[in-house]
Amino acid sequence: MPQPNATPASTTKRPPRTLAGTAPVSPDSGRAAVLASYGSALQMMQQADYEQAHTAFETLLAMGPNDLSDRVRMYMSACKLQLAKPLATFASPEEQYDYAISLLNDGKYPDAREQFKQILASEPTADYAYYGLAVLASMTGDANDCLENLGSAIEHNPQNRIQARSDSDFQDMADDPRFTELLYPEV
Predict the structure, then answer these.
(1) Lowest CB count within 10 Å: 22, 36, 50, 187, which one?
(2) Which pTM does this prediction carry?
């Protein structure tokens, strides 16, 4: 039996309350597109394409995803900071090599790799740059790249074979028979 003073139930449902004060966003096709754009912009940033990433984040911010806006603004600021960094200039390839080694020692492997490759782009026979790439590959566990670059370093300067024999940076390669064969071909 219905009660005479009961108010009718509303047909619109009130969003649930959370500790943060907002309801979780429901997934839909528009949301999926926003998340795809966000992921794409993050990937550009991770690949050090800061200019395109900044543009993508600006576009994303204009789309108005309220729950992502703080993060988007933070990433935009990070892109601006990266773009504002002065480019390093070097008096010689050897000076650039020293910089690359310091990056390598600090664990900044992608930046070090980029510096070694820049040296090789301007000086394709720079055995020390191949040697640096071989050390980097050894430290990051890329045996094939290590062997290829060490082979190039030895080809351009046979003294690199002797140096590599006592270089502790190649300790992870010591058990690889290809490494032993490269360093001790006469045995």
Answers:
(1) 187
(2) 0.57
